[in-house]
Amino acid sequence: RYVEIKHGRICQLAFLGQITTRAGFHLSGDIDYSGDSFDSFPNGLAALFGPDAIPQAGFAQIFAFVGLLELGVMKDSANGAEPGEFVGDFRNGAIDFGWDTFDEETKL
Fold first, then answer.
1. Chain center to CA of 87
2. Fewest CB within a 10 Å sphere: which of 20, 48, 102, 106?
3. What pLDDT, in 10s, does the model give residues 62-75?
């Protein structure tokens, strides 16, 4: 169940990233040391495949970073909880809104 929630959240972020870049919003600055800016690459799949695509080494770095997040950071047993105790809690101690301190009536 937690993998389904995690991948659903990743898909939501990917959709928002697609909408944002298609609307013309790009990060400022350069994507590499040779001076290529973020907005010099096309949107969507054309950024990965085609004549103006991100270089293969950059694609490999993105792929490796996502793999690191998948295997090392986004765990089901966040904050020392038993696996499956808080399904969908991928905060890993980074953000705490005090949810664990609420009584059952407040959580509903």
1. 18
2. 106
3. 899 988 888 877 76
